[in-house]
Amino acid sequence: MYRTRNCGELRISNVGEEVTLAGWVQTVRKFGSITFVDLRDRYGITQLYFNEALTVALNDRPLGREFVLQAKGKVIERTSKNNKIPTGDVEIEISEYTILNAAEVPPFTIEDQTDGGDELRMKYRYLDLRRPTLKRNLELRYKVNRSVRNYLDTLGFWDIETPFLIKSTPEGARDFVVPSRMNQGQFYALPQSPQTFKQLLMVSGYDRYYQIVKCFRDEDLRADRQPEFTQVDCEMCFVEQEDILNTFEGLFKHVFYDVKGVDIKEQFPRMTYDDAMWNYGNDKPDIRFGMTIQNMKAENNVHCATITQSEAGFKVFDDAETIVAICVPGASEYTRKQTDEITEWVKRPQIGMTGLIFVKCNADGTFKSSVDKFYNPDQLKEIANFCSANAGDLILILAGKETRTRKAMSELRLEMGNRLGMRNPAEYKPLWVIDFPLFEYDEEDDRWVARHHPFTSPKPEQIELMNDRSRYGEIKANAYDIVLNGTEIGGGSIRIFQKELQEKMFAALGMSQEEAHEKFGFLLGAFEYGAPPHGGIAFGFDRLCALLGGQESIRDFIAFPKNNAGRDMMIDAPSAIDDKQKKELGL
């Protein structure tokens, strides 16, 4: 055998044993006539001790970093112990060794704190994966995978595979398409999700289905997006929204406890979409901290008379469609330099505001603001009272167009949470967001589009509103998202299961009857044969793993990811194909 033990398991109780280890050379340290080598494998690091005679041999053929080495010897107690590694009480007194494979000097250090940039490490991903950081990430991913499967198995869910080569149905993100050699001029699409197939499984009577499945979307990339990603896809028959929420809240609690040891006993909070947008400026609120948005000029909210009165002569407020504020606790001692820095931050193109107003609520009860010449101390106090500010707090105010200003304040709230250390990645605050709009109006295309997807059911009590196009904006979807620490990690809905309602939904989205039957005739046909009420959820497996690992980017939780341009730097894909292949495909 190449090894009798691994490099992470030997302890003081193993002293005296004869062992064989195999792994990669992490470091070589020479001390005069003796040498110490750290040998690494997937399980850990063990120090090897080479005596004078073996050191002479090493002089003739030196070991280098990442050499593959087999070493035999006796476990002995270390004189100088290392309490930073589990094997730090022992070392191996080497009796013989074999270089199984030499290695070139790696282009970056194979350590947690590496000197390699992102592009370089992605080019040599097989080396990057040797780093302990990525090993821990992939180990966590495996544990989450195992935990999810174990939980769903106890509830009677079956793992059923669905096809990867399917029909293109351009709704939502762009499809990746695959030309067919046997049907030239025609194309498969890679699935953005197994949505219609899992619904067909419900029609088939497989009432508890799941997959941990690859999905594909041709969209612009960022830290939490990849062109191919993994989701946990689930569907159930004869359920209502409450059944789904309870089942999968149980799943998340199980995973938190099983993988991280976090025991969440209380029910996840539930928040309507409207409340999330009103109080947090987005539909995936981070509730680890407060600092909710105060709407100071809104028709349906209590007015702040000081702000909305025109007598002050402050045109920024007078001309604004909306005025919103947050109260930053304990930040009144921010310097002019700090408030100027925040002002420049909101002026960045990504945020898009022209300026920022601040009011300092000083500890002595006085007020200082950037609009002192327009508002006297009593008026500033009125603003502070409206924002429920206390002495020592800092009020930040944005004014402008409704959509842009609300989004900017949402981003500013998160930025201030970061600056004040309120977004602890080791703290987990999940919640459900419910009662989404069923439709959104696309101004560019001048039509209604589905907020989630066209298979989402309206709230039962609002189905009749589907007959009145003028009321589409009022209809709420029987849909729900699960949010963790300001990131949407999953979403789902109760599905439409009646042919007539599904046809009505397609018509609302601007599809003709012919187009609907061309794209989704298989589903409409299935609904004629006793489709049961059903619903489900899918959550981003990569995102969940990253959040549980305390990181925002999903890339380091995927073994072989793409870069931000959608390229695999290691294998150099995508790439051109030769003329022969093109001809075979009819391209």
* Widest sheet, order of strands: 6-9-10-22-21-20-17-11
Distance between the termini: 52 Å
Shape summary: globular
- Structural class of the secondary elements? alpha+beta
Name the CATH superfamily assignment of the largest domain: Bira Bifunctional Protein, Domain 2
CATH C-level label of the largest domain: Alpha Beta
Radius of gyration: 30 Å
Q: Give the overall pLDDT as a whole number.
A: 94
Give the number of helices. Answer: 16
- Specify the helix fraction band: 25-40%
Number of strands: 22
Which second-level CATH architecture of the largest domain applies? 2-Layer Sandwich
Poorly predicted regions are none
What's the oligomerization state? single chain
Number of domains: 3
- What is the name of the CATH topology of the largest domain? BirA Bifunctional Protein, domain 2
> Percent of residues in beta strands?
15-25%
Task: Tell me briefly what this model is.
The protein has about 575 residues and is of the alpha+beta class. It has helices at about 50-60, 120-125, 125-130, 130-155, 195-205, 240-260, 275-280, 305-310, 315-320, 335-345, 375-385, 400-420, 500-510, 515-525, 540-550, 580-585, and strands at about 20-30, 35-40, 45-50, 70-75, 90-100, 160, 175-180, 185-190, 210-215, 230-235, 270, 295, 320-330, 355-360, 365-370, 395-400, 430-435, 440, 445-450, 480-485, 485-495, 535-540.
